[in-house]
Specification:
By secondary structure, the chain is α+β, with helices and mostly antiparallel strands. The protein contains 14 helices and six strands. The structure holds fe (ii) ion.
Length: 317
């Protein structure tokens, strides 16, 4: 009988911080990456010799069967990392971003999993903690945002832009948390749209665009299935492609029919789309992006919020 081969998974070593209690075993590999050796036994506290050595080790691995334990450890630590004043903003933002990217990628692969949904709430809390810090300016946030387009990183970018704008105009506490959730989930409906359409390079045919237009309602349906019931959260997901002049989709809503959440997400969505590189276009600077939003989308977007975004990045246009 052959011995079962252990399979290992690389983890983000920045999440393994001094003083942390680890309930899974950590491994490292030799230079040739041919052999795994024990780095830290499970149920130990990171410290002593390992603390120094942690800086030198290139990558850390776990036994794949410990993945759930690692996930809950990482989630538990995320908010404390995000609110730790001793870690530089860009560093902690990168850690939260990397974790968010992993969680959202899983959620897009399996949007019906309640477990993934629970993880995304923890990620949102991490982002709210980040957005509440003084260093969270549009410029500092743009530095950590991914500038190549993937649906899951787009969701994260939109969430941090939306949260910063929401905080800037005075939203607080639970409102911010709900805003974070709504923006993080705004494109979840794309998980139910044919990947060929989502990833198509270049212009969609009319029929493909019609299919694509279904994603806000699909996202709304998934959100309800997940147990989200807050009207603002749901409106942000369903109405983020509505336009103030009534020319948007799926319902052609106008003016006051479009909620504050949906207006904020619409702006964050366009801003990220313009400042992100796609296979068919280069990324724009924040200055150029806001210029286009002001000149070409003045009947679509809420200009008071666009002006708030301008103030937020102190760009004079
Ligand atoms: Fe969308």
């Amino acid at each position: 009988m052959s011995k079962k081969q252990t399979s290992y998974k690389a983890i983000d070593k920045r999440l393994i911080t001094e003083g942390a209690n680890i309930d899974f075993t950590l491994y490292e590999t030799n230079d040739a990456k041919t052999q795994m050796t024990l780095f830290l036994q499970s149920d130990s506290v990171v410290g002593g010799d390992k603390k120094v050595y942690l800086r030198e080790v290139e990558s850390l691995y776990i036994d794949a069967t410990d993945y759930d334990k690692y996930q809950s450890y990482a989630q538990k630590h995320l908010q404390s990392i995000a609110s730790n004043p001793d870690i530089p903003f860009s560093e902690k933002a990168n850690i939260v971003y990397a974790k968010a990217s992993e969680v959202m990628e899983n959620l897009f692969k399996n949007p019906d999993s309640l477990e993934n949904m629970k993880h995304s709430q923890e990620i949102v809390n991490g982002f709210v903690s980040l957005a509440l810090q003084d260093e969270a300016t549009l410029e500092s946030i743009m530095k950590i945002a991914a500038h190549d387009y993937y649906t899951h990183t787009h969701s994260i970018n939109v969430s941090i832009y939306a949260l910063s704008l929401a905080k800037f105009i005075g939203l607080k506490d639970k409102d911010l948390e709900d805003m974070g959730m709504s923006s993080m989930m705004h494109d979840l409906g794309k998980s139910k749209v044919d990947a060929g359409i989502i990833n198509k390079n270049g212009k969609l045919t009319e029929q493909e665009f019609d299919t694509m237009k279904g994603h806000p309602q699909l996202g709304y349906n998934i959100a309800i299935k997940m147990g989200l019931s807050d009207k603002r959260i749901l409106s942000g997901i369903r109405d983020h492609h509505e336009k103030l002049d009534g020319g948007g989709y799926p319902n052609g809503l106008k003016d006051k029919q479009i909620s504050l959440f949906a207006r904020i997400i619409a702006i964050a969505d366009v801003f990220d789309a313009l400042t992100t590189k796609r296979s068919y276009k280069d990324a724009m600077s924040s200055f150029e992006a806001i210029g286009i939003m002001k000149k070409q989308m003045d009947t679509h977007l809420d200009m008071r919020l666009v002006n708030a975004l301008v103030k937020m990045c102190a760009v004079k246009i």
